[in-house]
Amino acid sequence: MTESASGHNDNYKLMYEEYERGPRKIAELCYAARVGDVTKAIQLVEISGVNINDTDEWDNSPLFLASLCGHYDMVEYLLSSGAAYDKNSFEGARCVLAALTPRIKSLLINSSLSKKFDDLEPFTSHIYGIYSSSKPLFYGDVILQIHSNHWKQEFALHWFIIQTRLGFLVNLATTNNSSLLIIQDAEGLESVSWKALINYAYLRVEDTQREEFELILRFAQLHHLDDLIRDVKVFGDIRERQVYGKLKGKITSKMIKNGILDFTHFFHSHIIVNKLSVPCSGTFEAQNEENNGFEDLEMFLSPDCRLKLIQCSSRPDMIVGVYDDGTDRICYYPVHQSMLARSPYLETMFGSELFTAKYESKPIKTNDLGTATIVDRYNLQSKHVPVVNFSFGAGNAKIAEIILEFLYTCSAEIALNVAADIIFIAEEIFLDKLKALASAAIVNQLNTMTFEEIQSCDLVFKYSIYDLIRVSWVTKCDKLEQAITQVIALKLDDFVMQKNQLKKIIIESSKRIDNREETDTIEFVDDLRYYLTKAYLEDDPIKYETYSTFVDEMLMELDFKEARVDT
Amino acid sequence: MLPSGNKRTKIRPPRRSLLDNAISGVVKDHGAEFEKSWRLLLIAIKLIQEKNVSELSYEQLYRMAYTLVLKNYGTKLYDNVCQQIKQHLLQRRLHLVLSDMMDDEANFLKEISIEWNEHLQAMKFISDVLMYMNRVHVKEQKVPYIYDLGIVLFLENVIEYNDHEIGHRLIDTIILEINNSWKGQIITTKTYITKTISMMNELEYGKRTVAAATVTADDVDNEGSNYYQRYFEPRFLSVSSTFFSQFALECLALESGSHYVQATSQFINEQESMLNFFLSTTTHPKLMQLMCNVLVKDRIDYIISLPYENHGLSYWLDNVIRNITATTRSDPHYEELRLLYDLVGRFDPERKLLKLRLRDRIIEDGQKIEQIALEMAQNSIKSSSFSSSASKKSPSISFNSSSFATNWVNSVLDFKNQYFKIISRSFGRDHTFEESIISSMRTFVNKNGFNAPEILSIYIDHCLKQLTKGGSKTPVDELLGNALTFINLIRDKDAFEAYYANHFAKRFLNSKGGASRMVDGMDIEDLFISKVVDMLGLSTVAKLLKMNKETKLSWELTKEWKKLVEADKDKSLIEMELKICNTVDWPKSMTKDYRIFVGDEAEGQAPFIWPKQLRHTMKQFEEYWSLGKKNSSKKLYWSPKFGNMELRISYPSRTYDISLSTYAGIIMLLFAPQSDESCILPFEEKRSYTYTEIKGLTQINDADLRRQLQSIAVAPRLRLLTKTPMSKEVNDLDIFQLNEKFKSPTTKVKVLTVSSSSSSSGSTGKVTATTADDDSLEVNARIIEGRKVILDAAVVRIMKSRMSLNHNDLIGELLKQLASRFQPLPLMIKQCLAGLIEKDYIMRDPKERNVYRYIA
């Protein structure tokens, strides 16, 4: 009786909260956006969990209101907290058009490029896929056995993930050989919680209940596992169930960010540290003139070195070789197939018989229960571990390392002098996010440069600004092209001097369409006009007229009969 | 090619050069550059096609293709690859055509499937290498993926090349092999047939639509989206159709239905599983449908309707009707019936055709049962009369004799049970067939001119009597079950009720006390009525229930009266078994003349004269009943027609307890001492009366009086009275006296009233026969009366709720509402409507004659 009554009460409470959070709260947020009360907005969004992209009863979003009322700080906060802004949508256009000041306008326009790349979902689901998939490509290499008084459980895991995420297990284990970890008397943690812990290691935390994390926290405290305590505590601390529900999204994303830090740490302290570099002397011979810059790097790796790599602390199942022309040496990295397979290109390659035919398939063994199959590290020999030629990174170990870092951590510090090269490689091996990171690095730099600096930007990027446009064309990197065009538009005063280069770009842009018709517009010119209109039409019509005339002139001289689009 | 000094700038890919062809206008040296990479790729592709991949490096090949696409050579690369695949395939085709394999079916199919597999394998490799082109170029140019291109090219350059040279050959070979297997040959090519068929399925036309310029409108029409559907399937179905027709003719050649169902069932079942193995899921149903149409649907009615000699349905079912009379039973042809059921189900899950033909058989055979039952009844009488008497004249059996009724009902039930057995043995316990059979049986059971309700009632009456006499070997349950099953077959339930009420009343009035209804501790009348209530509903049998209730009240009363008699100090009261029936509820045939016994002065009818010995008791009872039992509002009539009397008569030989009918008792009482005081013994007195005197003293009507006198004075052995002159006929001037010489071996004597049928004279015989018919006619009249009332009520009820309704709708509604009781005849409905119009319940719409309106 009492139970059902309280259940009903709970339901009622939930409904009331739903209502509380609903129309009333969004109205409060909209009010805060109008008056520019950032503190209130933070409170509403972070604590009360108001949906930042909701609208009030007149269909106004907080971002629109903040932009309309000219609160720069508020707009900045809303954008950083995930307010949707897409200049191509009606709502987005409305925000820009309504913006009270040019400063807010440009903040909005640039937001889509400067926006932090925090969508980690593809990365985390790949990591979890390594655990959950049954493909041979993703076989683990260690069995974790948990013995308790009442039960025994086995997990097929990957050594490098244990090193990355659950390093303490090695200390807890009673048995620890190349492919078996046994934990006796798993004090304080039930079978279900172990599963949750494994999921946590493979960055799958959103399905786990708070209670599980509390158990894990208690376990961590019992065994003084400081790293684990730090990570799990964010969860375990929160006693209030309702608060937990509201903050869950933020907490999980924080956990995942911590997890990615673990991966970064692992990458540097187990892969980079263990890299071997070999001078290309003596035996090195060009195979064939027609090799198109391609060399078989496997032959430069001596059997001893190869074995050393295989047995190094990262416990690799694959070796990547890269020629570095700066040092004239060949670098070898002990890596993991399952992480490299984040690149669809590499995954296809690993699956193709053209590749697998060259190596013996890895020895495998199955546990006694027949429930898990793992790679048998004990019997793993050189012939089982492929040496992959990172031909796309060839010539520069730094580039190769950036790519590897990206594959392992989903983030990378992109040096400007290789950013454009990275774009090419990302295109080649199908890493769209890396491409976006690299082009964002270039754009952010360009936005801070003066005209003089831009003139000599090939010193920074190794490519001139015009070549960068060409790079964006070839690699289908539209955002980069638009951002560069905008830079040119805003600095057209100075670029007038480079009329010839501009004309050349116009010609090239026009030729990008096969069988072009007279009515077809030229993409580059369109973009240029667009950004001119935005920047000057209202603020400085005279300047706008001058620039427009300049563009027309160029077209005239090039004999393009392009209809002028009046805005 | 190392430059000296360990400097190998060459190893670094000239990434910057990737921009060179970013715009096609600024291409320099472009032919040479492309050719250089393409040469290597071509070698690789050739190696792949020769299954020699060990020397190839995936990274290198991918990179070359990537570079070419990035440098805007995508279209050229695509075309070149296409060209190479095409050339390779043409070569392979030539190899196929020229090799000797073409003559050997098995090898031919094997070779084709091997070629196909190798081609797909090669295309997978090529597709992996050209992954970047697939992702970028293919999407931009909207051309097919490399892998799909491979399929299209195989279709165009191998299968369809040279006017489908290989394609047609392939189709012919497969069809030939499948045909051989139909003919019973064992084929060795099953796996290859499966493989090549799945190949034809994968050869899709849809993939070409984005491909080459050779696309024509008919590629995308609905002829089928792949080679299998477009070319193989139509051809295969048409060849199959011919084959099946041929097969059907072969099966028919034997002119035997049994053979046909066996052969086709076996063939279809075998093919069903075998073809499932080869054919695509889309063809299989089509082919099975074709097979069923040709082998079953088009011919099965012919097979079913084959005459007896040719083993059609009539042959398979023949034993059912034979079994009814046969001494040793033989099964109907369950196996053939089962096959037939399965075959018919292949094209119609409801099996309407089979139900229809079955119905025809049931009605035809069912009507024979009437004759069979008649013969059976005659035979039993013959055999009994042979043994008992010498009478050789063929006894005539009427339809309402209990002997016929029993035989007929049992036969019909037997008939039904045999069909139900067929359902469970051959028709997969299909409940729809149960309904269908019951409804078919209803048709012959209720056919015109045959009074099934009455016969059933006679049957039940007979059985109940047997049961209460303890003479029946049938257990109560079985009898009940049979009777209830049979009620289900009766269309006019109300008629049955009426007949049943009549028989019930007779049983009650002729019974001696409630105990006589008890069998095995159960009141069987109660039991039966309660079952009938369950079946027909309370309202239908309301009268029956009331009657049954009154019988029980009567027994109570009898018991109470007995106590009263015992308590009576004067011993002036006579013990009576009382049977009091309410004239409203009991059948009219029983109660119609209850008034005549008190006399009717207007008609000159003298009242019946009760003997003075009884009058005191009757008067006492009347008082007791109307006052003591508070029945003053009702009027009690005595009916001497029914009931019995027990007399103790001291004949000179000894004293007998004689049980006789009320009339006979009253006649005997005329000869008893007239008062207690009189000390003259009747035998000394030698009182005698003539027939006319007796009639005057009792006022019993002539027919009854003659019958009663025959019973007690003429019938041999039990002559309580003597008649002078001694003859069978009773004449007005005959003189009756107590029979001094009466003797009987037992002291208890039961006098049976002479039955009407064995009445001696022709004239009286006729009279009694007509009374029996009168009985039946009266019941009929009563049924019709009842129906009129129900019909009127139904019409008024319907019209009241609908207010206005056209004629046909009204009839429909009426039939629906009355279906559970009877089927009203159109004439009756017409009369009923006319009556209601006259009585101003309803009227015809002044504008539309067809529409009736309810008058509120």
TrEMBL record, chain A:
Record-given protein name: Ankyrin repeat protein
Record-level GO cellular component terms: cytoplasm; ubiquitin ligase complex
Gene3D superfamilies with a match to the protein in the record: Ankyrin repeat-containing domain, Potassium Channel Kv1.1, Chain A
InterPro entries tied to this protein: ABTB1, Ankyrin_rpt, Ankyrin_rpt-contain_sf, SKP1/BTB/POZ_sf
SMART domains referenced in this protein's UniProt entry, alphabetically: ANK
Keyword hit for Transport: no
Record's keyword terms, sorted: ANK repeat, Repeat
Record's keyword annotation contains Flavoprotein: no
ANK repeats: 58-90
UniProtKB/TrEMBL annotation, chain B:
Top-level lineage group: Eukaryota
Gene3D superfamilies, alphabetized: Cullin Repeats, Cullin, Chain C, Domain 2, Winged helix-like DNA-binding domain superfamily/Winged helix DNA-binding domain
Keyword field: Isopeptide bond, Ubl conjugation
SUPFAM superfamilies found in the cross-reference section: Cullin homology domain (SSF75632), Cullin repeat-like (SSF74788), Winged helix' DNA-binding domain (SSF46785)
PROSITE patterns: CULLIN_1, CULLIN_2
One family name in Pfam for this protein: Cullin_Nedd8
Domain Cullin family profile: 451-713
GO cellular component terms, semicolon-separated: cullin-RING ubiquitin ligase complex
GO terms (BP aspect): ubiquitin-dependent protein catabolic process
Signal sequence range: none
Molecular function GO terms recorded: ubiquitin protein ligase binding
Family affiliation: Belongs to the cullin family.
PANTHER family per UniProt: CULLIN
Entry protein name: Cullin-3
Organism: Scheffersomyces spartinae
Encoding gene per record: CUL3
